[in-house]
């Protein structure tokens, strides 16, 4: 509700949800920013460390605490890391920005392998909980998949080990060249084994000091993340759904719901991806509605996905139809989560001064073509990610299909890559070939989808088909004369 009010008062009545699981306002007046910060503070929100060479917001699985496949709830550990990292005096001026993601589920929904540090909650051979630590991941101009430097870290050592990693980076990271300043470059140039040795040496000086956690404090933190008081729930009664709604409601359930660890409940994804809207944008009225639904049906909790969607994590099955009707009325019930139209897209030239090419118009034209051909639900899972420049805010490097906007003598062109992933099978996409002009890029994407449909076996994802078939068939289709 406060975000909606802020967009009405200080912006243009909408906000843009980003891959950092943040919201971005594009039009505030500089002199009104202090008032925005004051209004955010009224509801315990802030904009601290969303920019600058510091530790950015700590992110995790948007289904944390309710995911059916998680080892344990990662949110207490994220909050411990957040409290340690916020306004940390030693790391306020790092060589470059720094991002940490925590994953505790069987499926990595936090993109932890493309973060500066990835923290995985794991169990050792004796069943003891701890962490696997990855470092050196990142996207942007030089995308790299993170590597493991410690297979198992005892839980009480978490902060001291993270501090050791940051100290090594803060001391040795390059400050003479911003393109080589990220920890991924330091790890690559130093070598994984040598970097791990440097961290272990630094950690030996820290691990028995004041950063040592204790179970009492951890238990207190976990107490802040106890599950809500779940009420009895029953499955959706098909007989209660009007015949005119049954097909659309069933389709929405198929694509926009996810399993919940609590019987009788489901996780609801609210895609901000209507075909004629900008990916990630939500109006003030839509934000107010989602807040109302969370209060009435979902224990007053809303999450943001790095795919630029919203999540209601705790919806009873017998409330799903009522929630769907209200979402549909607000154009928030598009059944496309996990499809090619659930694309990640940065603002591009429309709002960003760093961009080389537009993203929003291209994404809308792709959506129009998919709608016209009426084959969205024949495609299966396709992750389409698009960035307007090399900074990679749209995660193009890890899309099944990645689109990167480039500038050629003032004209907008686009490079395509295939085969990327930010999940458990994390990989960087392979560049398809020469850049494609603005007037040809949408047709090129359609050709890629045609090759996928032709070569696909069974229920294969685009990624699986590409890895089995290889790049040549896609290249032939796109660059055919």
Structure write-up:
The strands form four sheets. Strands 13, 14, 15, 16, 17 and 18 form a six-stranded mixed sheet that branches. It contains 14 helices and 18 strands. With 481 residues, the chain is an alpha+beta fold.
Q: Characterize the largest beta sheet: strand count, sense, and whether it forms a barrel.
A: 6 strands, mixed
Contiguous low-pLDDT stretches (5 residues minimum) are none
Average of per-residue pLDDT values: 96
- C-alpha Rg, in Å? 23 Å
What share of residues is helical?
Answer: 25-40%
Distance between the termini: 53 Å
Question: What keywords describe this structure?
Answer:
globular, 33% helix, alpha+beta, 481 residues
Q: What's a quick, concise take on this entry?
A:
With 481 residues, this protein is α+β, with helices and mostly antiparallel strands. The chain is 33% helix and 17% strand.
Topology:
Layout (H helix, E strand, L loop, with lengths): L1 H9 L3 E4 L5 E2 L8 H10 L16 E2 L14 H11 L14 E4 L13 E7 L5 E7 L11 E7 L4 H15 L10 H8 L1 H13 L10 H9 L19 H14 E3 L5 E6 L10 E3 H14 L5 E2 L5 E7 L3 H10 L14 E2 L14 H14 L10 E4 L13 E8 L2 E8 L11 E2 L4 E2 L3 H15 L6 H8 L2 H8 L2
Parallel strand pairs: 3-4, 4-5, 13-14, 14-15
Antiparallel strand pairs: 1-2, 1-10, 5-6, 6-7, 8-9, 9-12, 11-12, 15-16, 16-17, 16-18
Helix pairs in contact: 1-9, 4-6, 5-6, 11-12, 12-14
């Amino acid at each position: 509700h406060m975000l909606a009010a802020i967009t009405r008062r200080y912006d243009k009545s909408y906000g843009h949800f980003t891959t950092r699981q943040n919201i971005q306002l594009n039009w505030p007046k500089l002199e009104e920013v202090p008032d925005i910060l004051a209004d955010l503070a009224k509801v315990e929100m802030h904009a601290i460390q969303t920019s600058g060479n510091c530790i950015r917001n700590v992110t995790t699985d948007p289904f944390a605490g309710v995911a059916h496949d998680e080892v344990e709830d990662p949110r207490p550990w994220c909050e411990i890391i957040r409290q340690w990292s916020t306004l940390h005096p030693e790391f306020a001026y790092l060589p470059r920005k720094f991002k940490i993601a925590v994953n505790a589920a069987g499926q990595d929904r936090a993109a932890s392998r493309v973060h500066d540090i990835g923290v995985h909650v794991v169990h050792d051979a004796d069943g003891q909980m701890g962490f696997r630590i990855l470092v050196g991941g990142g996207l942007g101009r030089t995308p790299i998949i993170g590597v493991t430097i410690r297979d198992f870290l005892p839980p009480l050592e978490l902060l001291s080990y993270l501090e050791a990693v940051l100290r090594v980076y803060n001391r040795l990271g390059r400050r003479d060249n911003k393109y080589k300043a990220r920890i991924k470059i330091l790890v690559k140039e130093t070598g994984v084994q040598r970097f791990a040795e440097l961290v272990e040496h630094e950690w030996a000086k820290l691990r028995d000091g004041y950063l040592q956690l204790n179970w009492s404090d951890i238990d207190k933190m976990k107490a802040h993340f106890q599950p809500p008081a779940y009420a009895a729930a029953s499955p959706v009664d098909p007989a209660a759904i009007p015949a005119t709604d049954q097909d659309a409601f069933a389709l929405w359930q198929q694509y926009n719901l996810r399993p919940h660890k609590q019987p009788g409940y489901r996780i609801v994804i609210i895609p901000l991806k209507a075909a004629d809207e900008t990916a990630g944008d939500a109006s003030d009225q839509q934000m107010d509605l989602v807040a109302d639904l969370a209060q009435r049906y979902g224990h007053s909790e809303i999450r943001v996905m790095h795919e630029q969607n919203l999540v209601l994590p705790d919806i009873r099955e017998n409330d799903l139809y009522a929630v769907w009707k209200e979402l549909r009325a607000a154009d928030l019930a598009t059944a496309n989560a996990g499809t090619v139209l659930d694309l990640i897209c940065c603002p591009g030239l429309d709002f960003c001064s760093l961009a080389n090419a537009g993203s929003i118009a291209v994404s809308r034209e792709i959506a129009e073509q998919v709608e016209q051909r009426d084959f969205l639900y024949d495609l299966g899972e396709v992750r389409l990610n698009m960035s307007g420049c090399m900074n990679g805010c749209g995660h193009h490097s890890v899309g099944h299909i990645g689109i990167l906007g480039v500038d050629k003598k003032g004209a907008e062109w686009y490079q395509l890559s295939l085969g990327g992933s930010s999940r458990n099978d994390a990989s960087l996409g392979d560049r398809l070939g020469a850049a494609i002009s603005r007037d040809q890029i949408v047709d090129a994407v359609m050709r890629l989808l045609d090759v996928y449909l032709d070569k696909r076996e069974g229920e294969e994802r685009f990624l699986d088909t590409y890895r089995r078939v290889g790049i040549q068939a896609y290249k032939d289709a796109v660059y055919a004369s």
